[in-house]
Amino acid sequence: MMAAVLKTSGSFCSTQQQHFQQSRRDQFLHGSYSNFKHCKSKKIIKPAPLCARVTSSKVELDVKDPYWKQKFQEDWESRFDLPSITDIYDLKPRPTTFSLKKNRTLTGDENVDMWNGYVNNDDRALLKVIKYSSPTSAGAECVDLDCSWVEQWVHRAGPRKEIYYEPEEVKAAIVTCGGLCPGLNDVIRQIVFTLETYGVKNIVGIPFGYRGFFEKGLKEMPLSRGLVENINLNGGSFLGVSRGGAKTSEIVDSIQARRIDMLFVLGGNGTHAGANAIHEECRKRKLKVSVVAVPKTIDNDILLMDKTFGFDTAVEEAQRAINSAYIEARSAYHGIGLVKLMGRSSGFIAMHASLSSGQVDVCLIPEVPFTLDGEFGVLRQLEHLLKSKGFCVVCVAEAAGQDLLQESGATDASGNVILSDIGVHMQQKIKMHFKDIGVPADVKYIDPTYMVRACRANASDAILCTVLGQNAVHGAFAGFSGITSCICNTHYVYLPITEVITAPKRVNPNSRMWHRCLTSTGQPDFH
Ligand SMILES: Nc1ncnc2c1ncn2[C@@H]1O[C@H](COP(=O)(O)OP(=O)(O)OP(=O)(O)O)[C@@H](O)[C@H]1O
Ligand SMILES: O=P(O)(O)OC[C@H]1O[C@](O)(CO)[C@@H](O)[C@@H]1O
Ligand SMILES: [Mg+2]
Fold first, then answer.
1. Which residues of 36-194 form beta strands (DSSP E)?
2. pLDDT at position 141, please?
3. How many other C-beta atoms can be found within 10 angstroms of the C-beta atom of residue 301?
4. Are residues 362 and 389 in contact, defined by beta-carbon separation less than 8 angstroms?
5. 190 with 231: CB under 8 angstroms?
6. How many CA atoms lie within 13 A of 359 on its CB side?
7. Domains and CATH numbers, the chain
8. What is the ipTM for the molecules in this complex?
């Protein structure tokens, strides 16, 4: 996740060293970095760290430099600094109107006790807590080749003692974009509750994602505690969602025309990119608007955070599908249960549902290539499973094995590639294979795609949504903009959106979690 790019520093390195470094870099970046001490003892080459450099996204650091760590940390601090409306405006804060104590009116500092329950702007949470001793350690994410310990602090989320908006004058808007996700209504509800607690009276919902900003005939919806009180009891989005949309400038024109001061944006990677573009455009136009995102996606594919809301619920629902496939397969003669689960770029749902169900014999994810045919292919393993236990269950992520299929060449309204259907392909291949070898096989295919994301949030997601929604409002009142409200390393924090949208988060095949999944399924390597 840490953007560590190692570079050879030309004048210091021989061609041989450069070649060695190139392969070390490849191994390092792909998680299979071979033991450096072993290489040294074989006297293959001089220690490479002399030539190694570490690059974070903004500044290139040379590990020969005795101050590289300090420089790295300064760079980190500036990257994770939270953009604020105070960067463009010389604003005076006022005491918050959000009080944790009831029956008191806060008119100024004199009414605030020593203990106040607020979060200080200097409070930080540590993003990474494992000290890896080697890049070969399971799941290692190292900043340099020696895995030096570098503190990576991020800003703690929560209510501040001072705020930058007059609640009575604020117009706040909420928009939900992308695909559906359990918990959207919980977050909308909490944002409304918290805004009202601050004293905001003008709260609106933008219907059907970013589309609601420009599509004629779509009217903003006034929101209040009374209106959203029970929306968490249903799945979906009270406001509606959509993909695709207008240009950022048109959205900001609309924000300006509607006189919106705070925009809360619920969505995945694409939505976050959109929210950041809106934030930048507001900045360019010198508008006093706080744009705060809340990461939503059942795919759990957003960088740096422990999980996105909706993921837990999706996994819970997905394992119900797996359980049905198990029951079908177990009850049939030579039954094969096949379940396809969502995950556009990553296999988190498939991996977690396989782990939680404990009923999966083969889990296939996009991060780990596999073959179906041949001696080491999936089909041979299914033959083995039918022989040894009489039935089996396969769980495949929708983006897995795309190299085995013809590209659809199509994209959706947001520009996301429409994947070819690996589930249907595998169903056909399995049926054909067992017919060809003359072994009876009863294949039961389950595609619970939209069922796993249309349900209401489970208990743990409902709590996550509550915290993230409330913190989004606190972040806006604190003047931040271009941030997302999330959970990192079990703590609730704000991250600049720019840091979470550089790529989709993917399952690390070298992680303990994937290894646990393999231990649980007992599957071999399929290539
Ligand atoms: N790079 C981008 N810049 C600006 N807007 C974007 C960008 N990518 C996507 N969007 C907009 O964000 C919205 C949601 O994007 P998308 O459909 O990719 O869903 P998502 O937020 O990634 O959620 P999901 O996890 O459901 O895919 C769309 O309206 C789309 O037009
Ligand atoms: O069919 P839709 O609504 O475009 O969404 C499908 C995609 O949305 C997600 O649920 C969330 O990104 C993906 O897993 C899936 O590929
Ligand atoms: Mg997306």
1. 53-55, 60-62, 94-95, 124-126, 153-156, 162-163, 171-176
2. 87
3. 24
4. no
5. no
6. 21
7. 160-306+456-487 (3.40.50.450), 310-453+508-519 (3.40.50.460)
8. 0.98
Q: Which residues line ligand 1 (CB under 6 A)?
A: 177-179, 209-210, 243-245, 267-271, 273-274, 277, 297, 299, 414, 416
303: which 2 tokens?
A: 């960088």
So what's the pLDDT on residue 139?
A: 86
Is the Cα torsion angle 253, 254, 256, 257 positive or negative in sign?
Answer: positive
CA distance readout (Å), 156 to 85, 110, 464, 475, 493:
18, 25, 15, 10, 4
Q: Are 235 and 454 in contact (CB under 8 A)?
A: yes
Q: Which of 177, 298, 418 to mutate to test the pocket of ligand 2 (most atoms within 8 A of CB)?
A: 298
Give residue-wise pLDDT tens across range 341-370: 999 999 999 999 999 999 999 999 999 999
Which one-letter DSSP state was computed for residue 44? Answer: -
Q: How far is the CA of 214 from the centre of ligand 3 (A)?
A: 20
Position 61: which residue type? L
- Annotated binding-site residues read 179, 243-244, 268-271, 297-299, 342-344, 398, 450-453
In the block, residue with structure tokens 């006790």: 113
- Ligand closest to Cα of 413 equals 1
pLDDT in tens, 464-522: 999 999 999 999 999 999 999 999 999 999 999 999 999 999 999 999 999 999 999 99
Q: Is the distance from the beta carbon of residue 453 to the nearest atom of ligand 2 less than 6 Å?
A: yes
Active-site amino acid positions: 299
CA distances, 206 to each of 168, 177, 298 (Å): 20, 10, 22
Q: What is the DSSP letter of 526?
A: -
